[in-house]
Amino acid sequence: MSVAFRRDSDEEHKEPRFELPLPAGPNLVTRKGLAQIASQVAHLEAQVAGGGDEAAVTVAKRELRYWRTRLATAQVAPPAPAGQAGFGSRVRFRLNGAARIIDIVGGDEADPANGRLAFTAPLAKALIGGEAGEVLDFGDKADAIEIVAIEVIPE
Fold it and tell me: In which residue ranges of the chain is pLDDT below 70?
């Protein structure tokens, strides 16, 4: 039989599985975010230890490498200066007249659908450093944001 028709395994024909990409920059987190990362690591470690389907364990190991790295590099961010929007702040504001509330958090704990924005998001960047009563530009529009109140995110 010709070598061209012989295949030792299917593994040689699969696409390579690259590591999950790590976001650039510092891995800033809130205390709650640090606990969420530690919980994710514990969950994945249990999943890997439990064995089972080989493909699922392989995926869990890949995710576990990502989350262990995120846990090892996590830095609990210092609180924002009093009265200023910053990392760990809950900001109440009006955007183009509509009232909104967001929490400024780390990338791994961000959940935009629930009002938790990463500190690297454009809206969060626009708010950081602002104070209550201040009017800010956003999205090439002057005076688009009016900050109503700023508080620390409740634990």
Answer: 1-16
